[in-house]
Write a structure and sequence with these properties.
Blueprint: H1 12-16, H2 19-22, E1 30-34, E2 48-54, E3 65-67, E4 70-77, E5 80-88, H3 89-100, H4 121-132, E6 135-136, H5 141-148, H6 153-180, H7 184-205, H8 216-224, H9 228-242, H10 248-265
Parallel strand pairs: 2-5
Antiparallel strand pairs: 1-2, 1-6, 3-4, 4-5
Helix pairs in contact: 3-4, 6-7, 6-10, 7-8, 7-10, 8-9, 9-10
């Protein structure tokens, strides 16, 4: 598989690079590339994220970080710094199976829709995001696509939209509580987090996947170029997040109002 996007030409040598030999991987280990560079939102200092999904652990004993089944190492490959994460491939299969079987009509908390012993929701949803926005290594494109086509994408986006809506609801009480306690700086900080989470929910409702808050405005900006309503939200969010408009109380109230308006506009 050759990358068509001109911004991703740098990736072509990696698609041919013999990671299986260089990293002493097994033949059935699945390799894919992801992260900000692959999504074309990174910069010259960004690392390339490489994921290795294994069915059986490698015979190697040393990694930079070793948390049992989840391992990480840092290498410089083809003049680019790479973060290489190792996950059991069964974890990805389990994630997809759970998402495909979600029943949204019950009262089950969103965070409980995705549960695997030894991992938390953020870790699991981040792995799925990285898989969703990735490019497979040439040696295992067929295996990659066979897994990818099993994912119920609608369930994935709906689950994550609900997750961030719930996060906004939870933060609301913190904003009000700190305001009532006259802890306005803390309240302002939490209200901005509330706004970011509402924007994450909006992105997922628009079928834009994201797992890092730092990219929320970048992705919102890109989406706003094709969606006038999102453009309006983007402009307002920039103003309310980065600029002081009035008193602390007024700023907090305006941010909370904007966040609530965003959430109310989302269809799930």
């Amino acid at each position: 598989m050759k990358v068509e996007d001109s911004n991703l030409k740098f990736l072509n040598p990696f698609l041919e690079y013999d990671f299986h030999k260089k990293l002493t991987l097994k033949k059935d280990d699945l390799i894919f590339f992801s992260g900000s560079l692959v999504e074309c939102i990174g910069n010259a200092r960004s690392d390339l994220d490489i994921f290795v999904l294994y069915s059986k652990a490698s015979d190697r004993k040393t990694y930079d970080y070793d948390f049992g089944e989840l391992k990480t190492e840092f290498k410089r490959v083809l003049e680019i710094n790479c973060d290489i994460e190792y996950w059991p491939i069964e974890v990805l299969h389990n994630i997809i199976e759970q998402i495909n079987n979600i029943n949204f009509s019950n009262d089950k908390r969103t965070i409980n829709h995705l549960m695997i012993k030894g991992y938390n929701f953020k870790q699991l949803s981040s792995l799925l995001h990285r898989f969703y926005v990735s490019v497979p290594h040439n040696q295992n494109t067929e295996m990659y696509l066979s897994i990818r086509e099993t994912l119920n994408e609608s369930n994935y986006f709906r689950m994550m939209t609900r997750f961030y809506i719930n996060a906004v609801d939870n933060l609301y009480d913190d904003v009000i509580g700190t305001m009532e306690n006259n802890d306005l700086l803390t309240s302002l900080h939490i209200s901005k987090s509330m706004l970011v989470n509402s924007l994450m929910a909006l992105l997922f409702s628009k079928r834009v996947s994201i797992d890092r808050e730092k990219w929320v405005f970048k992705k919102l900006e890109k989406l706003s170029s094709t969606d006038k309503r999102v453009e309006d939200i983007y402009v307002k969010s920039i103003v309310h997040y980065f600029e002081r408009m009035g008193s602390l109380n007024e700023d907090i109230e305006d941010i909370v109002t904007l966040s609530n308006n965003i959430i109310e506009s989302i269809e799930i």
